[in-house]
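User: I'm writing a short methods note and want a consistent example. For Cd(II)/Pb(II)-responsive transcriptional regulator, I'll paste the sequence; you return only the structure tokens, no commentary, since I'll be parsing the reply automatically.
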Amino acid sequence: MKIGELSDQTGLTVETIRYYEKKSLLPEPNRTASNYRDYSKIHLERLLFIKNCRSLDMSHEEIKALLLFQDRKEDDCTCVNIIIEEHLEHVTQRMEQLKSLQKQLINLKKQCKGGLSQDDCGIIKELSNKKRYKKSRHNHISLDNKIHKK
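Assistant:
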């Protein structure tokens, strides 16, 4: 099937499909005589797997590790459990960061008295203050040394 049909069946853009190919999450498809990419059911299934992983906010590194496991049928699922445990830890940390961000935004919103000029706007004054807001980071946990590679 052509990339447009694959895009329609997965709900992913053509650009996203090509990006996953470039990042080696998706194997290169065969080429037709006219050099068009020719995708198979395997590509469709793999893209749906990737899409499900992305909907759980998994990183490309985590997805690659899961795909590696999926391709090596002889392994037990211990490494998959490790990946999910690590991802759950990341999600928990991210939730804590988001709660902190929420508190900062609530406090910032309280600075608004409403109806004032821009020069008197409490939010603008607060954001212009030298006091720095704590940046919330969105980093996935590195899986290096967490998963055995054969």
